Each structure stands twice: as C-alpha cells, then as structure tokens.
Amino acid sequence: MNHWIIAPVILPALLAPVLGFVMRHDMPLARTASIAGTIALMAIALGLFVTAAGDPQVYYLGDWPAPFGIVLVLDRLSALMVLVTTILALLVLIHAVTTGWDARGRHFHALFQFQLMGITGAFLTGDIFNLFVFFEILLIASYGLMVHSGGRDRMRAGLQYVVINLAGSTLFLFALGVLYSTTGTLNMADLALRLQDIPVEEGALIRVAAMLLMIVFALKAALFPVQFWLPATYANAPAPVAALFAIMTKVGAYAILRIHTLIFGPGIAATDGMAGTWLFPAAIVTIAVGAIGVLGARHLMALIAFSVLGSMGTLMVAISAFSPAATTAALYYLVHSTFAAAALFLLADLVTARRAGDRLVAVPATSQNGLFAALFFAAAIGMAGMPPLSGFIGKLMVLDALREPGTMAWAWSAVLIGSLVTIVGFARAGSTLFWKSTALLPAASGGPVVQAEPTAAARPAGVAGLASVMTTIALLALLTIFAGPLVGYLDGTTAQIFDRDGYVTSVLGTEGET
Amino acid sequence: MTEQEATVVVNDLSLIIIVLLPFIGALFPGPMIRAGRNSCAIFTALPTALSLIMLLLLAPSVMDGQVIAVELAWLPQLGLSVAFFLDGLGLLFAVMILGVGLLITLYARFYLSGDDPMGQFYTFLLLFQGAMLGIVLSDNILLLLVFWELTSLSSFLLIGYWKHLPEGRQGARMALAVTGGGGLAMIAGMLILGEIAGSYKLTDILLQGEAIRTSEWYMPALILILLGAFTKSAQFPFHFWLPHAMAAPTPVSAYLHSATMVKAGVFLMARMWPVLAGTDAWFYIVATTGLVTMVLGALIALFKDDLKALLAFSTVSHLGLMTMLLGFGTPMAAVVAVFHIINHLTFKAALFMTAGIIDHEAHTRDIKRLGGLRTLMPVTFVIGALAALSMAGIPLLNGFLSKELMLEEAAHTTWAGSPYALPALATLGALLSVAYSFRFIGHVFLGPVRADYPHKPHDPPFGLWVAPALLVGLVVLIGLLPHIVEPLVRVAAGAVTGGVLPEFHLKIWHGVTPALFMSAIAVLGGAALLAIHHPLDRAWIAARRPEAKAIFDSVVGGATGLSQRFTQLTHDGAMSRYLAIFVASTTVLGYLAWRGGGLPAATRDLLPVPPVVLVGWVLLLVATGSVVLMHRDRFRALVVIGVIGLTVSVGFVYLSAPDLALTQISVETVTIMLLLLALHYMPKVSPVESSVGRRIRDGVIAVAAGAGVGALAYMFLLRDTPSISEYHLANSYEGGGGTNVVNVILVDFRGYDTYGEIIVLGIAGLIIYAVMEALLNGPAARKLRNTDYSSDRSRDRHPLMMVIATRVMMPMAILVGIYIFLRGHNQPGGGFVAGLVVSIALLMQYMASGFAWTQSRQRIEYHTMIGWGVVIAGLTGAGAWLGGKPFLTSGYDYFHFPPIEEFELATAMLFDLGVFLAVLGAVMLMLYSLSRIAHYAGETVNPEPMDYDPSTRSRIVKEEK
Predict the structure, then answer these.
(1) Which of A139, B45, B495, B924 has the fewest CB atoms within 10 Å, measured from its CB?
(2) What residues does the Na+/H+ antiporter MnhB subunit-related protein domain cover (chain B) (predicted)?
C-alpha cells in the first residue's frame, strides 16, 4: 500500500500543531517551517500526481477492509485537485509572508496548515462521512483565516460566513443521516454499488439525500440561490486568504463532480439526471449575478469576488452537463479559474496596500502604477476569459462541450454575455484605478507636491512581494501553452470519473488485500 | 472549387516566425527606450522589417498560385492548432499590415513628444501588429478568434494610451465593449461553423460552402459571425465607437482605425466569402448594412469639424463601401472590394498622417480654426490634397479607379426588386464623399491665411512627412498605372472567391459607361454641396440627432447603476434573509426530489408509546417552544437549551446508548458553562430586529423545514436497512481489541474521523484565542473597559462552600476521568468523555477561585496541551507505518503483571490519550480566552482562593455604599 497517499493530510496535520504551539513566539522560525512544509507538500502532491496516472489507488485506514473502515482514494481527479491546492498554497503563503500579512494576527501559519490538511483530506477521502469531517476541518480553519487580523467589517462578514456554513454543515449531516439510514453504508464505492439496485419506485429517500447533498455542495461552490455569503466573505477576508479561498469554492464543485457522478451518477435509476436538471439553471443565474456584481461593484475586492462568482457559474454550467466532454472542459476551467482568482486577489492586495482603501475611485497614482496596471490587465484578461490566457481556452472548451439543443442557447448566451459584462466591468475598474489616477498627479513643474512621504505600506513592492502575483499569472500562460498535454491528462481523468465500475472495483474488489 | 483543390500547398515553418516576430519584438521597445528614442524606434522597426522580408520571400510562390501552410498541434482535443496559411488574400493583408507598420513606426518616432512613454507605445503597437498578422494568416478559426480578441485588447491599450485624458479612457472602453462584444458573438458563430463543417481548420471549412449554406445552423452562424465583423469594421449601427477611438494618438488612428484593424471585419467577410456569401440572407444583410453605413458615414463626415472625426466617419463610409461590395456576392464585386482595400489604405493612412501633422504644427484639428495652410505648409498641402482627391475619386488617382468599378457594380445590382435603389444611393454616397473630401482640401488648405492659429504652422521635419509622402506616391502610381497592382488584386481576389475570377483589367478608361455618368454627378454634386456647406452646417447643428455616445453612455451607465442597486439590495449582508432563502429552497427542492420517487414498504411496526417516553417528548416540545418564545432573554434561553440537552441525554440512556448519553451530558455541561461565562460580557437581551411579517415568514419557513426533517426521520425509522455496523459489532473484539463497539468505532474503525474532529476542536481553541487577541486590540476592548459590570457582579465571588466542594470533588472527578478513559475501550467511556469530565473538574476550580488564582497553580500551557493531543494522535496513527501497516492500524495485547489482574494495552489507547488532551486543552483555552475578556473588563485578581474573610467582605460592602 502506498503510504504517500495520506501524506498530504498527515504532513500539515503534524506541522500545524508544532507551528501553533511550539513556534508561536518566533515568526521567522514559523515562516521557514511553514514554507518548507508547503514546499514538501507540493513535492508530495506532484509525486502523487505522477503516480495517479493508472487505476485508482486505495488506502485502507486502520487496515480495515472496505467498506467497513475509512478509505482514501487516489485517482487522477483527487491527485489533480491536491496538486492545484498545494501550488496555490505555496504562492499564497509566500505572498502572505512577504507582505507581512501573517504577522497581523495570531496563529496564521497553524491555521493555514490546518486549512491545507482539510482541503487535501476532502479531496482524498473515499468515505462520505469522512468528507463531512474534512469539510468541518477546512471550514473551521477558514473561519480563523477569514477573520485573521480582525477589524469590524471583517468580523461582521466572518460571522455571516460562519453562520451560513454552519447551516450548510447541519444540512450535510441531515443528508448523511438519510443516506445512511437507507443504504447502511458510508463508503462512496459501496454507496455507488448499493444504489444501483434501488428502483425509482423506492428511491424517494435516496433522491432527497442526493438533493440535500447537492445543495450542501452548491453552498460551498456559491451557486444561486445559496451564493449570498461569497461576495462579502471574499471581499472582506485578508487578500491572501481570499486568494487561498479560490480553491474552497472548488471543493464544492469537486464534491458535486465526485458524488453526483460516482454515487448518484448516470445509470442510477433513482436519481438519474436530477442534479444536472437543477444545477444548470442555478449555474446560469449565478453567472448573471456574478456579471451584474462585477459591473456594479464599487470596491476592488468586491469586484473580484463577484467575478469569482461568475466563474463558478461557468464552471458549474459545464459540470451540470455531466458529460465527458463538458467534464474535461470543467476541469480545465476549474484549474484556470482557481489561479485567475488568486492572481487578482494577490494583486489587489499589493494595490490596496498602497492607496487609501479599495474603493473604485481615482486617487493620485501610487508608486509602480504602470506595473500594477499591466499586472491587473493580465489578471483581468485571465478572469474575463480573453486571449491569450487560459480563460479563453477554458471558455472555448466549455462552449464547445455544451451543444445539447435544450441547453446550448442558454449556456452560450450566459457565458458570452457574462464575459462581455465582466470585461466592461473590469475595464471600468482598471481605467479608474490605473489610468484616471494619473490625471490627478500634480504638474511636473511647480505646484505643491500632493503625495505625502511614502508610508511603509506605500513602498514599492520588491521582487519578493511581486513574485507570487507574477508566478500566478505566468501559470495562466503556461496553462494556455501546455493546454494540449494538460487536456490530455484531463481526458484521462474524465474517463476515470465516468468509469464507476473501475472505481468500485478498485475500492471493494481488492477486499482484504493490503 | 476544382481549382482550389489543385493548388499546391507548401509547408513552411517561417510563417510561424513571421507571426511571432512582432510578439517577440514587443519585448524590446520597453527596455530600449533607455538607450534613446531612436534606438527604441529602430528596435520596433527591426522585427517588423524582418517579418516583412520573410513574407516577401514567400510572396513569389504565392503569386504563382501556391498556398503556404504550416500546422503545429496545440489543443487537438478541441481542434485548436497553431495553423497558418498564406494565400493571396493573406499576403495582401500581411504586406499592408507590415508595410504600413513600418511607416507608422517612423511617423510615430517624430510624432510623439518627449513626455509620452514611447517604449510603451511601441510595445502596444507591436503586440497589435502581431495580433493583426495572426488574424490574416490563421488557418484555424479558433486561433483566428484568439488573435481577433487580441486586437481588441491591444487597441484598447493604444486608444487609452493618453491615459490622463478622459476621452482616451472612454474611447478605449467603448471600443473594447463594442469590438470585444462582437468578438464574443463571433466565438459562438465560429463554434457553430466548425460544428457544421466538422473541422475548425479554415482551409477545410472553405471547401464546404455548399454544406454550410444549406445547414439549418447557417443563419445563426452567419448572424453571429457578421456581428463580429460589423463591430470590428464599424458598420452601422456599431459604427459609433470608431470616431471615439480617435482620442488615440494619430499614428494609432492611421494604423488601426484606417489601415488595419477596422479592415479585419472586411477581411473576415472576404475570407468567409466562399462559404457564407451567395445567399439572399448574405446579400440583404451585408449589402444593405454596407450601403447604409456608406451613406450615413459620408453624411456625418461632411459636418464634422474635427479633422480626425471627419476622417473617422469617412473611414466608416469607405468600410461600408467595401462591405457592400462583398455583400453583392458576385466575383467581380469581390475583385473591386479587394482593389478598394488597397486604395483606401494608401490614401486614408496618408490623410490621417496629414491630419496628425496639422495637429502637431498648428496645435488644432478644428477645421473651423484652420484654412490657408496651403502657403504655410506646402509639402503637407501637396500630400493632403492628392490623398483627398483620391478619396473623392478624381481621375488619375487610385481612388477613382475603385470607385468607378464600385459604381459599375452597383449600377447593375437590383435590391428588393428595384434596379434604381442601389445605384442611386451609391451615387449619393459618392457625392457626399466628394463633398467632404473637397471640404478637407478647401477649408483647411485653401482660403486666406489666418492670423489666429493656436500655433504658427509650418511644414514638419522630413521624418514626419516622408511616410505619408510615400503613401501618396503609391496613390499616384496606382492611379496612373493600375496594371502594376493587377497581379496582386488578381491573386487576392482569387483567394476571396475561391479561384473563380471573371475577366477584368484594371484601367483608367472604361469607355462611356453608366458609372462614368454617376461619377460625374457625384463630383459636380459634391462640389455644389460644399458651396452651400455653411447654411447646411447651421441646419445640421440645429437639428436634433441621436448622439451615439450619449446613448452608449446612458446604456452603460444605466446598466451599471441598476447592477449597483441590484447587488446592494440582494447582497446587503442580511443574514436572516440569506438563511431564509437557503432553508426555503432546500425544503422546496427536497420536497420536489422526494416527489420524484416512491417509498419501499415499511418493515417495522410502530411501537406503543410508554408514559416515560411521552413525558420526555412533551418536555422536549415544551422546552423547544420555550426557546423560541424566550430567546430574547438570553439567560433563560440558555437554561432551557440545557434542559433540551439533558432530555436528549436521558433519551440516549433510555435507548441503551450509554456512550452517547455520557458524551451528550458532558458536552452539554461544558458548553452551557462556557456560554454562561461568555454571556456575562454580552447584552442580556436580544433586541427585536425584524417586523412581524418577516417573523411570520421565517416562522413558516422554519416550520416547513422542521416538518420536512421530521417526516424524513419518521420514514426511515420505519424501515430496516442492513448496514456496515453489523460488521463492526462482529469484529470489534477480535479486530479492535475492545468490547465497547462505540469506542472501537471512534478510535479504530473510524479513528480517522475522530482524528479530524479533535483537530477541529483544537482549531476552534486556536481561533478563539486569535480572535480574542484581535478583539482585545481593537475598539471592542475599549467598550469592555468602559462598560460597568458591577451591578451584575456577585458580592460573594468565590463562596466558601463552593470552593470547598470543588476542592473535594477535584480528585474524585479526575479519578473518574481516568477511570472513564481507561475503561473506554471495553465499557462506555473513552478519551473524549474523559477529557470533558476532567475539564469540568478544572472548570469548577476556576469558577470557584477565579482564573488567575487557579492559573498560577497549573503548569501546562493549554496551547501545548492541544498540540500534544493532536501530535500524539497523529504519531500513534503514523506508528503503524513502522509495521508496514496503514495509518491508524491498531495493535493490542494482554499483559499480566501480578498482583494486578490481566489487562490490555492497545495503541488505540494512546490515540485516545491524544483525544483526551486535545479536548481538555481546547476547553481550557476557551476558558482562558474568556478570562482575558474578564481581565479587560476590569475584573480584579483575587489573591486568595475564596472570600472567606468577613472583614474583607464588610470592606467591600462599605465601598459599594
């Protein structure tokens, strides 16, 4: 058995207590350990990504046979998600360290590692109750990160986030209760197996469970009508945390993709097609809400938050088709939108640190205005899905995959019009922030110098400060250039996702073997 | 079509290099500006020139009818490849893009002032150039889309180049919105087209004209693609962005908005001509749009006072002309269109540069402030006048040739059954064109020299006029010797029509034809119109016209305002509404899901209700109802919640679940105690925040959801399902070494879950500590300090009785804790409950004697305790790796040391120890955080364990009086 499968969970789980309880008084030590740990995590994730190319690999915790113990399952999908998470984490962590965000409150690094543990655990688990447990871990860690360094608005938004997610967790438990009471098992593969035999005439409870789970995951993925928490949360979270949260919505998307293909997937009589039917309109409305929010945003962070909402809509439109082509497109778009959102949040942090607040009004240009303008342009292009960055490819793939007569007109209109509105919104914001501000500079000769002495925060960002933003944008470019090989891997991933029997056999078929 | 199939296709990688060169070159102007403006310009010209040379090397074979192509895989799954091909049409456009690019580079070197960031300008220019080359050379329509949107983006940057000017910013945004939007429509169109053709490869698509035109998807594809082309080429009603793009520096206007980018739409229509043209829909949409644009653009141009605006609308008009020609759908019209593309490029770019020179020298572009420049700027005059005459279509200049041919084509085209509509309107367009061209000459150069120019004008330096002079040279050359461009026109037009070309020769004299008469009418009429321009102009200004920019601005502004209001109304942070929507939609969706399926027959009977259960049930109902009724009084609500928790625990006992009962009781006790402590620092009463209506709404939703949950529970309680717990029961002792299945599940079967949950608890402790830290450093701390809690304070803070009782209970409680811990594996209990029991024992010490007093008597930090707990649990799990077993595999054995009875040691117990420590640490850390609040709230530290000293008490009483 490949013990590395559990390493992405155990490494941060062991590191975090040490960071929080042993190193909490020495920031340089904590930073070094945290970064080193995240690098190691990324290396492990990369190794798993490579080894996951074959059949799903199963890790039987406690050496109990499935479905009686808990299993971890490493397949292409979970390996991909873990890899994306760790790359994002490293970028965000470096940004947080170089900008000093980690020192603005207690326990940043410990919470960060716990957060990583929660996310990777959620991706790796093959047990639906264990998924709940890891949802709890990633959520509670995210509460802490969300309110990191405090402040009234942040606390208020944080409370909202906590309350909504607690409601979601409660629903999760209800759904699991229904599911367990009707199937008597929690192992995902076993669930997939048992549901096959339940006809629709006896499937009412199963259908309820599937629906409730879908709502729980939709809440995490910020889908209409349970998207309300996202804009305020992301806009008020510390920017690096908001960047890390780019993967949190994807956990919801991942869970829908996993659960509603494996357990309630195609071919299950009781729930056939139900998730797609409901997800599709919800995703369409989400795109609209996101685009409208981008256009109407008055603050930079809110603008980005709404654009994340729109991108989740696009992602879920693709997922809701539950077809192989659309799933590949969705996976590509998922990877892309994660990094695009992160790039924007990290950049917004650099910009807002150098001006008074993030209101979208012109204030005299900050230092490095041109550089920030260029980076914003690039990141916005990525988010809005314009060439030459990966958003365009992702959008093309999504559109190309959605050609079902009933859905095509809606999906295409929503995605394309949504893009247009997003572009207009970003152009307005960028032109106000970076262009209009140059008009406010005092004349070169004569006239009093309006700009005060630069404060510590207003100092030009150095190479280290810019490293994460630039790397993230470079990643978007790499996603574009190497779209071919990546989509090749994703095609394999999709094939695996839709190969239910393969998954079930991997988990249950090797019973007793260790 | 047969000819096309016979064309020789040659593979040549250099096409990729040709397209890439400008992009690579774009890296250089930025740094090179440090070496001076000349180096900057030279390093811009270099990649352009190199690219052009490589292109010209390929030109001869293209002129021979070969097609040069190259293809590299990019994203084969989607059908997107890096595929380029060079045929006549591509060659024509590529030469125009690179040739004019060179001239513009030269012109801009002298046009931009020292304050303008030239490096940036050239970078954007090269990016645009590369994108434009990409469009005209793409052999894959998806790749074409990439470059198409890239031109929108780079033109956005170029229009907004003078970012401090509001016109520049607005113009840039408008151009991006319109052309970007058109591009998005085109994405849809191209995807449909590719689906019909079964390939995204352009050369494949071009062979499938018949299939595409007869497809039921033809109309959507046509309209969507034309949307892209029309927006880009500023066709009515999307023409309005182009004049506002004139806020860009003049080199940009000359390059993008006359010579290249706006022709991308025309290019696309020409490129797609073999597959899309030839239907009625094509004719009526394209030809009509072109015609309207041509006339309307020319009419507006006549009344524009800004030189660049005049030229902009004239460009709109000429683009309309080309569009109309392509819309005719006949091969000859396509030939004329291609010819006019060349001619328009030469005279219009020269005119823009002339306008730029005038602006540069006279510091104004307002025609009404100019005039008489003929003598002051003779060189400019010659250039400008020749170009303008060509635009007017005066013989011996190239504009005349293509205009004649256009009129000829219009003369024998019927529109909606009328043979006169098209020729008449085309003549009108030509007439207006003559009028504004003459105005350009007459009102700017002719007339008396004025005394009030903003700046004394004179001819510019050589560097500024050489570029337009070269272009005007071409104007005259083609005008006099049209046959020299005939091969180029032939090969380009051949590419447009797919090889089928009519007999034609480009020459000045075609004999006395209808076109000649139409042309004469146009010239004479135009001159006459200019003569009465003054009164017309006054009438034009007085007339109310729809102003495109105002409409656009109000649409965008209105949309923005609405969006703002919508967002603020819906995302205003009203948690109760968010939750109401969440719960309501969950209930409705859950119900709908349930409706879609049926239920299996019930397998269990309802049991009779014994009185004890009934009492508990009523108690639960009453307590829950009381919470709803009394929730504003927070203390009472808490107490009632405690009742609910205890009733549930009793329920667990009744249902033979002692583990659950133990856990429930201890959790209940700890949480209620902590909540009570926290409540001390919070308002004791919840204010009424929502209206009655809203409370009724929420009540209905809550009751519906509750009923739903109840119904679900009822349904599954009536049915048996075989579950994995049977395995757990069977294997608990043998596999897990414990007889308490619940504990074995917790620490062994599902130890991983427990591991996760203690981490949750640990994180909670950390967060409470961190949040407290943030709060106490913020305004909340001030509020705490300034609140008077003395009225709530007991006069007997640390009563003797309580202190003594807790002291006595402490060792017992800890013993019980250890006992519960140890027996956990086989009897009800375990680390979790034990941790809670011990923390209750400690909690009571703190309550009895105060935090500080107690704190100074304990040596382990709570932080560390949580840390140890998590680490011990983790390491225990990892210990299994040493035996080659998976994480959390437990081992156990039985030991017998006399005189103690035989007992069992299991690694699971070590794991349970981690659970114990984490639980204990987390609870105590929470308490610690609360006591910090107390400290901030001004609570004093008691030096003694209890307030037993009567004299101390009397003193306190005295002080309070």
Answers:
(1) B45
(2) 802-924
How confident is the model over A301-318, as pLDDT tens digits? 999 999 999 999 999 999
Nearest Cα of chain B lies from the Cα of A295 at a distance, in angstroms, of: 6
Q: Is residue A338 in a domain?
A: yes
Q: Is B682 buried (19+), middle (13-18) or exposed (0-12) by CB count in 10 A?
A: exposed
Alpha helices in B160-279 (DSSP H): 166-197, 202-205, 209-214, 218-232, 241-244, 250-254, 261-271, 273-276
Chain A contact for B783 (CB, 8 A cutoff): no
pLDDT of residue B129: 95
Q: Indicate whether A382 belongs to any domain.
A: yes
pLDDT at B436: 94
**Nearest chain B alpha carbon to A209:** B590
Q: What is the pLDDT of residue A271?
A: 87
Query: Which residues 431-450 of A are in CB contact (within 8 Å) with B?
Result: 431, 434-436, 438-439, 441
Q: How far apart are CA A125 and CA A117, in angstroms?
A: 12
pLDDT above 90 (res A325)? yes
CB contact under 8 A, A274 and B593: yes
The larger pLDDT score, comparing residue A441 to residue A29, is at: A29
Chain A residues lying within 8 Å of B597, measured CB to CB: 200-207, 270
Task: Give the Cα separation of A501 and A507 in Å (integer).
Answer: 10
Residue A406's domain spans which residues? 273-438+460-494
pLDDT in tens, A116-145: 999 999 999 999 999 999 999 999 999 999
B763, A144: Cβ pair inside 8 Å? yes
Rounded to whole angstroms, how far apart are CA atoms B849 and B856? 11
Determine, yes or no, domain membership for A95.
Answer: no
Query: What is the domain partition of chain B in residue ranges?
Result: 277-531, 609-686, 738-961
Query: Is the Cβ of B209 closer than 8 Å to some Cβ of chain A?
Result: no
**Helix A239-262 crosses helix A229-236 at what angle (to 10 degrees)?**
140
B767 closest CA partner among A162, A33, A240: A162
C-alpha triplet B706, B710, B716: angle, nearest 5°: 150
Q: What is the spatial distance between Cα B136 and Cα A138, in angstroms, rounded to a whole number?
A: 50
Q: pLDDT by residue (tens digit) across B532-545?
A: 988 898 888 888 88
| In-domain check, residue A15 | no
Interface contact flag, A393 B78, Cβ < 8 Å: yes
Higher pLDDT, B282 or B925: B282
B482 within 8 A of B335, measured Cβ to Cβ: no
Q: How many domains does chain A have?
A: 1
Contact A104, A161 (CB under 8 A): no
For an interface test with A, the pick among B120, B159, B163 (most A C-beta atoms closer than 10 Å) comes out as: B163
The Cβ of residue B790 has, within 10 Å, a number of other Cβ atoms equal to 8
**pLDDT in the model for residue B682:** 81
Chain B contacts in chain A segment 224-263 (CB below 8 A): 225-226, 228-229, 231-232
- The answer to whether A2 touches A51, Cβ cutoff 8 Å, is yes
Q: Residue A313: name the closest of A289, A343, A340 by CA.
A: A289
Percent share of chain B, pLDDT over 90: 49
Examine the pLDDT at B795 and tell me if it is beyond 80. Answer: no
Residues A449-475: tens digit of each pLDDT: 444 444 445 678 888 889 999 999 999
Question: What distance lies between CA A499 and its chain's CA centroid?
Answer: 25
Q: Is-contact B85 B113, C-beta < 8 A?
A: no
Return d(Cα B235, Cα A305) in angstroms, integer.
36
Residue A278: its chain B contacts at CB < 8 A? 589
Q: How confident is the model at residue B1 (pLDDT cuts 50, 70, 90)?
A: very low
* Interchain contact, A184 vs B723, CB within 8 Å: yes
Q: Are B160 and B168 in contact (CB under 8 A)?
A: yes
Q: Which residues are A57's β-sheet partners?
A: A74
